[in-house]
Each structure stands twice: as C-alpha cells, then as structure tokens.
Amino acid sequence: MGKEQKQKSVLIAARLVMHPRLALWLAGLYGAILLSAALTYHTVGDYGIETDFFWTFVPGAEALLRGSLLIEEFRGPAYPALLAAASLVFGDFFRTGVILAVLASSMSVFFVHRLLVQFVGPERALWGTLLIAVNPVFVQYSYSAGTDMMFFALVAASACFLFCKDRTATALALSAFLAGIAYLTRYNGIFVVVAVPLVLLLINPHDEPLARRSLRSAGFLAVFFLTILPWGMYCLAEKGDFFYNKNYLNIAYEMFAKGRVGWDEYWSQASRHYTSLGQVIFADPSLFVTTVAGNVVNHLLNDLSTLLGWHTGVFAVAGILLLYKQRVNRTVAGFLVYSLVFFGILLIVFYSERFSMFLLAAYTVLALHALSWEKLRSVRPVGRLSLPVFIVLVLIGWTFVQSYQFNRQNIDSGPREVLVIAEWFKNNVPHRREDGLITRKPHASYYLGLEMMGFPYVETMDQLLKEARTLKARFLYFSLIEAAMRPQFQFLLDPRQAPPQLRPVVYTTSPPAVLYEIDTAATR
Length: 524
Description:
The protein is mainly alpha-helical and 524 residues long.
C-alpha cells in the first residue's frame, strides 16, 4: 500500500470515528444482529431470570390489558406497562419481551457511545463501546426477556443527559424523568436521589457556582419525584405505603439465609419472619454492617471476574490506581462517583452480574484511563499501531470469543420439552385458563395456558396431594427442575411410578418431563 493510500485510509477511519451518526450506526447494527439471532434461537424462556418474566411480568401485563393495575412486591409498573402495549403490536408476550430486550440493548449501545465520547473522546469511545457490546453478560441480557436491559438503557440515557455539555433545564428534566422511569422499572433506581445531588454539589462537573448547583439538584429531585408520584400515591392508597415493596426480603436473604437456608425453604417459610427493612437491619445491626462491608470486596471481585472478565478487569483496577497519579476531569470524576453510589446500593443484596451490568460503563472508563497512560502511548508494537490500541483490540477480540462461546450455548438453553408437551396438550386435552397447574417454574403454565400454582414445600406424597386438593389444582407438571428442587419426588419423572391419584397425560423422555392430571376424588 502506497503512502497516499495509507493517508486516505487513515482519513476515512478518522471521519468514521468522528461521524455524528456513529452511535446510531453502532446501535442499529447491534440491534439487527441480536434481533436476528434472538428470534431464530431464543424461542423458549430459560430457567434463569426469565422465570421472573413468566411469573411476574406477564401476569402484570395481562392485568393491564384487562384494565387492572397490579402492585408487584419487588418492582414497579413500567416494564409490565411497556410489555402490555408492545404485545398489541408483536403478539405473543415472550416474543414481545425478547424484541423489547433487543431494542433496549440497541438504545444502551447508543447512549453508552454518547457517554464515552464525552468522557474519553471519539476514538476511545468507539473501542469502549465495542468492548461493552461484545461483553458476554451484556449480550446475554440483550436477548433475555426481562427488565435488565430496559433498566440499563434508562439509566444510561439519564446519565447521558445529566453529564452532557448541554446544561439547559430541558436536559436536566429529561435526565430526571428517565431516572424516574428507571426507578419504576427497578427500585434500585432510587440511587439517583443520593448520586445526583452528591455529583452536582460536591464534584461540580460543569464548574458552576453553588447557587446554580443547588438549584439544579433541587430541580432534578423535583422532576424525579413528580415522575414517580402517581405510582407512589396509588401504592399509598392501596397498600398504605408510598414506597411499598418487599425488597427487604432480598436483603434478609443476603443477611441471614444465604449459605444457611435453601432458596425454596427461605421463600416458602423463613421469609415470613421479616416484615420491614427496619426490622431486617435492627435484627442484627452488627451483622448487617459486616455483611455490607464484606460485600464491598466480594461484589468488586465478582464484577471484575464475572461481569468484566479478568482480562479487562486488571485494566480497570489499573485505572483506579492511576487516578492517584493521573487525574481525570470533573465530568469523568462525576460519572465515577455516580457509578460508585450505584455500586453501593447493590451491597445490601445478594450478588448477580445482571444487577451490576450498568457498571460496565464505569469499569470501561477506568480501563481506558489506564490505557491512556502516557508511557504506554509512545510504545508501538505493530507498525503505526500504538500499544493501547493494540491492547484494546486484543481485549475486544478476547471478549468476543468468550461471549460467542457462552451465548452459543445459553441462547437456546430453555426447556424445549415444555413446548412439546404444550403442543400435544392443547390439541388433545379440553381445558380452561382457570385450571390450576402445580409447577416449580412458571414456564409450563405459560405455554400450556393454565393458571400457575407454585409447587408446595412439602415432604411426602400425601402432603402434596393434600395441598393439591386445597389449591383445587387440576394438573401437576414435573421435570428436571422440579426434581432438583424437590428431590423427594424424583420418582415422578417416571410416569410408571406415579401414585394412582396422578394420571399421566403426556410426557417426554429426553429430557424427562411429565404432565399429570390430579384425581381430586382419589385424594379425599
């Protein structure tokens, strides 16, 4: 390649990096690829976070379409409302949920790029956006039906308007409104009530006088609370609490049950002992404090290994250490503090990488900060390619390979046997939507079109049949997930070993799953 051709290539690349529509192109390309993969391979919900989708969000959306607004115990109404509206266009709730996840991931890519441009400049913003876009966790929740990617998109959009160079009241109001919708999606969105005033008043990213900072903080909080006010008043009228939710049960699990009590035992029995956040905290204040303190290290290590991957995590750590020597500007510092508050609110609950997913942006900023160290920029290991660019390209490639291997297995990991049983059942067994189905996971009730009834926490067959009679359940679904959580009933995987009160209706053998009809007369 001649000198002129090289210069032309460099010029084209520079124009691409600087193009004002690059964020749109990245978002569109990402969305198109993920939508094609998701609709092709992700045809049945998995037993992970999509359990919440079938258990909580679908019933909430169905209630809205009937004209009723349910108050869910752990999350706000934003996602069920969006799911209900979008289902009028896309039909099937699960397909709608997958499409919404892909659209939200596309929006997340757009706003992440816009954020990074403000923090690290156009070139490094491109590398950082690509690094996040190929992250295994980010990709997984880009096709998973649930609130995770919607929450990511809303928080990223809110941060984008908060930290943008446009200091107008409109930008601030948009940031606060989006933060309010994020809170109505996932209640940990409340972190902005602490984060935004802290950032505006103490970090002062826009270098403004105190009076203006105070006014902007008050304005943000006012719009935020006006956004959540209708829902809060509804909760107050129906439940007697403006901030009604039972997330204190998740906190109690982290404090008192994790590693000591099984998940099913906790939620069916032990959780009844806790009635408020105050009770959870003051039941053992020293344990609460030590658990939160311990989670600082545990969550950080999990973020660096599980969320980021250590190959990128080491550069994020290096970026933290470099802050002492090579400081960042106020805008970047403000975003890091904003993200630190987000990290802090997660310390009171059990760790999950999907809860921390928004922190990918902050960790990427820190990793890019480490790679901006002046002693690295002068090293050129491959031709004109600087060492930082070479490293980030390796990180993107490494992360992409990991993501491809993980998501190739995960994207179609749902219980496809449910579809086989559901198809035969709907074509051969007369039933009503009100017929009750006992099952450990809600997938079977969704695909069979029956009312879900949780699998009772009992020890014997007689107790199970007694509970079935009490619940007035007509069917029982038993598969590997039920056998794993209720090992005392593993024999039900073989319909030949079923008691006379359970009549096998349809079953699969690989993997094993059986739909039984309960003989209620025989259980008396």
